[in-house]
Fold:
Amino acid sequence: MTDHKPTRKEILRPLHLVGIALAAGIFATVVTLVSTGAFTQRVNLSIAKGTYEGLTPLGLGLVIGGASFIVTLLGLAMLMLAVDPADVTKTIDRPVLFDQDEPPSTSKPGPSNADGRDAGDGRDAGDSRAPAS
Structure:
């Protein structure tokens, strides 16, 4: 098994972003078609007779799908602007939300009194009041 760590450039190529937006647009189109009854006999008969008022389910689905495609593509493009170009070639081998300088914190118990309470400022652990000055 290889231990290949992909770079951000390999993960988020422009074609992948367009593919994600296209999938979101197709999903929105299908949901719109199903929810407007585009596959029911009643709606199809009224469209064929010319008695259907308003935008047909197919037209509405295309409008909603196109809008969803554009909004998703613009949103992903705006998120890509937040990526530092110098970080594009770096490999991702750690959690991205951790600071680079600071290792994950380990909780160490502080000094305690003989009765087991924290010897800090004399307040109880549940006391949220600021110390009197």
